[in-house]
Amino acid sequence: MGRENQTWMSEFILLGLSRCWNTQVSLFVLFLVMYLVTVLGNFLIILLIRLDSRLHTPMYFFLSVLSFVDICYTNSTVPQMLVHFLSARKSIPFHSCVLQLFISLAMGSSEFFLLGAMAYDRYVAVCHPLHYTAIMHGGLCLALATGCLGAGFMNSLMQTVIIFQLPLCHNVINHFACLMLAVLRLTCVDISFNKVMVAISGFLVIMLPCFLVLFSYARIVAAILHIRSAQGRCKAFETCASHLTVVSMCFGTAIFTYLRPSAGSSAEQEKMVALFYAVVTPMLNPLIYSLRNKEVMSALRRLLGKLSEKK
């Protein structure tokens, strides 16, 4: 039955964020600006880290991977959403819907694992500064980044295959994109097993990295409190402030979306939360890491200085 429904259902209709034309035009302008800021900001972070040798450290290596993930995540949903704002018929082909869910879920899962790896990097930097270079060598950093991406894609593949094996009753998705919870609402069978899988996936992808972050920062805070000079404590805290801000946004949004009781959720609330995670968070990440980071700002000034000299 599932296969028959999938063969017959060649496309899905997305209801989007609003049916009012004037509202959709306003949203198009707003999200187009946010999309451009997101892509350009994250690309600039990657470029600065690539070009400035002073930023060739584990911390900035993970930041460049995070920026790459944010670009991919944003591009998996926002361009289609922008097109649909100006379209009378908001449809998406079946295979495009599957691909969108797979990529967005893979990138989202990878980001949580990356934030956990970045917390471990900050833990080593603050708690074991003399051995930092030896511990966080290039091979380990590459292995951690590859493992984060691999785990994210494996989780996404498992969830996507399970979801699209279910028989679907209709093809109208009350969302702006093909996201996991929205697609699950289309099924016409009992999805108790899928809810269990979502809960298990949420624990592994969200809570395990969250526990690693909490453990790392508990040790970091303890180490900072043992630093005698106020200047030393301030410097140690500054190295973690940007990451801690991003962690709070990402994990807070994800826990609100996936780990709260389903009875207390609604499609409209999930749209707003998903919108924040898909558009706002990737846009804020480069701003947080640049405005709160003296090394990134210095690298930007050096790059602008070189460009002005060439002119």
Automatic annotation (TrEMBL):
Membrane protein topology class: Multi-pass membrane protein
Positions in coiled-coil regions: none
PROSITE patterns: G_PROTEIN_RECEP_F1_1, G_PROTEIN_RECEP_F1_2
Residue span(s) of domain G-protein coupled receptors family 1 profile: 41-289
InterPro entries from the UniProt entry: GPCR_Rhodpsn, GPCR_Rhodpsn_7TM, Olfact_rcpt
SUPFAM superfamilies: Family A G protein-coupled receptor-like
Transmembrane segments: 27-49, 61-86, 98-120, 132-154, 161-184, 196-218, 239-260, 272-291
Subcellular location: Cell membrane
Gene Ontology MF term list: G protein-coupled receptor activity; olfactory receptor activity
Annotated family: Belongs to the G-protein coupled receptor 1 family.
Physiological role: Putative odorant or sperm cell receptor.
Entry protein name: Olfactory receptor
Organism name: Panthera pardus (Leopard)
Gene name per UniProt: LOC109268878
